[in-house]
Amino acid sequence: MQTILASGLCKVLGQRTALRNVDIAVEPAELVVLLGANGAGKTTLLRVLAGVLRADAGTVSIFGEGSPSSRRARMHLGYAPQSTAIYDELTVEENLAFFARMQRVASCDVPAAIDRGLEFADLVQRRSARASSLSSGMKRRLHVACAVVHQPRALLLDEPTAGVDAESCAHLVSSIDAMRRRGTAIVWSTHDATPLVELGARSMNLANGEVVS
User: Fold this and answer.
1) pLDDT by residue (tens digit) across 46-78?
2) Nearest Cα residue to 26 out of 7, 54, 13
3) In 3-state terms, the chain is what percent helix, strand and coil (to 5)?
């Protein structure tokens, strides 16, 4: 059974058709890369898959559930939007703890989740630093770590390496691929799939809301 399955997705935003009859299926341990220019529909598709937006037509199933907003789907789904979503006034450790609790990680498991997140983001030495003091690359790594702190079985990433240095990009790619190899299904939106080619990623090209060959 596919971890992520969507069929006939349509979405109109204002006067623009953002998605037009889009189908996508992602197996466990599979990486699917969404390619396309700005306005192609990549972010809209991820937001629909995450349950942030409701499609005007079509169906979405996460883990066989009828909706990405179901409790089971939310428990096992990670979503890192393009805009960095961390709290500057909190420390690195406090950000990870906050998002772990938001994702219903049991209190007794939060310390281990924090340690995993620090390793994932390569921020062990900065655990007590305020997020506001981090470089842009470190903030981006923390942002993604917060999205995966609950060890999701499906992960949606919107330009996770945008605007980061080569070292941060390489670390994120390595950390995310380790999740894939452990069975996580991943959908990754990007303008440049070059860093992902060696990972055996399957590409979907979007243009004007449609999948193109």
Assistant:
1) 999 999 999 999 999 988 766 787 777 788 899
2) 7
3) 40, 30, 35
